[in-house]
UniProtKB/TrEMBL annotation:
Keywords: Oxidoreductase. Residues 97-111 have a biased composition (Polar residues). One of its GO terms (biological process) is cellular response to oxidative stress. GO terms for molecular function: heme binding; peroxidase activity. InterPro entries: Ccp1-like, Haem_peroxidase, Haem_peroxidase_sf, Peroxidase_I. Residues 97-118 are annotated as: Disordered. Pfam families: peroxidase. This is Plant heme peroxidase family profile domain-containing protein. Belongs to the peroxidase family. Residues 67-375 form the Plant heme peroxidase family profile domain.
Length: 375
């Protein structure tokens, strides 16, 4: 690059001098060096913002390919890490608080025990281990970016829409994480506001029980108000509408199963083979359970061995599909139900909205530091 400064140790003067396009190799070197800098968080954000303004977008095709090749594991659940990695990306992003601009995917803060020990994140240590080789090979990328890109690839690999990915998230140091996300010594969950999850977590919880003061014979959305509020509260805090909330839950819960030893719930939401079966095109899965199960009164309530409420239905006499109380809440609440029905009628609209809404989720708190990949 004619006249460019060395990329081995860039500073603000180096960045100001960059006026010509860089090769991917030079960009990788620059971004990798930024991950090693011991500057404070604000300075690093300013530097990366400047980089993003003047550099060509990266082509992450090879990174995507390596992630896709790591998804299959015949010994894990239904043979795939897809559900795990979608949940992982979701939980890394779902801590965002719009009012304080804290939480979210920037910083890869689940590396710290304060967040990793959140009961809602049980079992996600496996996702970190699965993605460790990807991070090691593509070391110019932050953990935060690798984790979110993996969620995007997992959705596409299962027949879902391609989620345009934007990179530039940072890996906070301990000091930055403590300051940025307001960890409180001794708190059970570091991002807790204590309003909508009994654990104090900012993430939604599966069940908050029925309202003990609800009038006898009242509509179910009144009786189940604590659980419904446990959805609407966190999603509103992040800045999502009811329609966006329904879209995100429908997207995330088309996959995988619950584990008694992790959540206390059991059985799959929906069994699938990401290599051969396309949930979205065939119109099966989560939405069909609403249409053919909940809507027709074909579900049954069961209390698991761990004392958790869940709803089940069997399609074709096989292993029953499971729905959490939060899943049922999308049908119980009239404001949510209208969007469930709308997406059931128009799967094209669902797929289109899923792209926009999931991208919004994983970019919360990352404004001004991201660059969309080239593809």
């Amino acid at each position: 690059m004619g006249g460019a400064q060395s990329m081995s140790n860039p500073n603000q003067d180096d960045l100001a001098a960059l006026t010509n396009p860089l090769s991917n190799e030079q960009i990788h070197s620059l971004l990798k060096s930024q991950q090693k800098k011991t500057v404070n968080c604000k300075t690093r954000v300013d530097l990366l913002s400047k980089v993003n303004e003047i550099l060509l977008p990266l082509d992450l095709t090879l990174v995507r390919s390596d992630i896709r090749n790591s998804l299959r594991n015949r010994d894990h659940d239904d043979g795939s890490y897809v559900p795990l990695l979608i949940r992982f990306a979701w939980h890394n992003s779902g801590t965002y608080d719009k009012s304080t601009n804290t939480g979210g995917s920037n910083g890869s803060t689940m590396r710290f025990s304060e967040e990793g020990s959140d009961p809602e994140n049980a079992g996600l240590g496996l996702a970190m281990r699965v993605l460790e080789p990807i991070k090691k090979k593509w070391s110019f990328m932050s953990f935060a970016d690798v984790w979110i890109l993996a969620g995007c690839v997992a959705i596409e690999a299962s027949g879902g829409p391609r989620i345009p990915f934007s990179y530039g998230r940072m890996d906070f140091t301990t000091e930055e994480a403590l300051q940025k996300n307001s960890y409180t010594t001794g708190s059970k969950c570091p991002f807790g506001d204590g309003k909508f999850n009994d654990n104090g977590s900012r993430l939604p919880t599966a069940d908050r029980g029925i309202d003990p003061e609800a009038p006898k014979g009242c509509p179910i959305h009144i009786k189940e108000k604590p659980t419904i509020d446990g959805i609407r509260g966190p999603f509103t805090r992040m800045g999502f509408t009811d329609k966006e909330t329904v879209c995100l839950i429908l997207l995330g819960h088309q996959y995988g199963r619950c584990h008694p030893d992790v959540s206390g719930y059991e059985n799959p939401w929906y069994s699938f083979d990401p290599a051969h079966y396309n949930i979205y095109e065939h119109g099966l899965g989560y939405l069909s359970i609403y249409q053919f199960g909940v809507a027709q009164g074909q579900t049954r309530k069961r209390v698991t061995a761990q004392g958790k409420r869940q709803w089940e239905m069997s399609l074709g006499g096989g292993e029953p599909f499971m729905m959490l109380p939060t899943d049922m809440a999308l049908w119980w609440d009239p404001d949510y139900q209208q969007y469930v029905k709308a997406y059931d009628r128009d799967r094209v609209a669902f797929k289109k909205d899923a792209v926009v809404t999931f991208k919004k989720l994983v970019e919360l708190g990352c404004e001004g530091i991201l660059t969309e990949e080239r593809w």
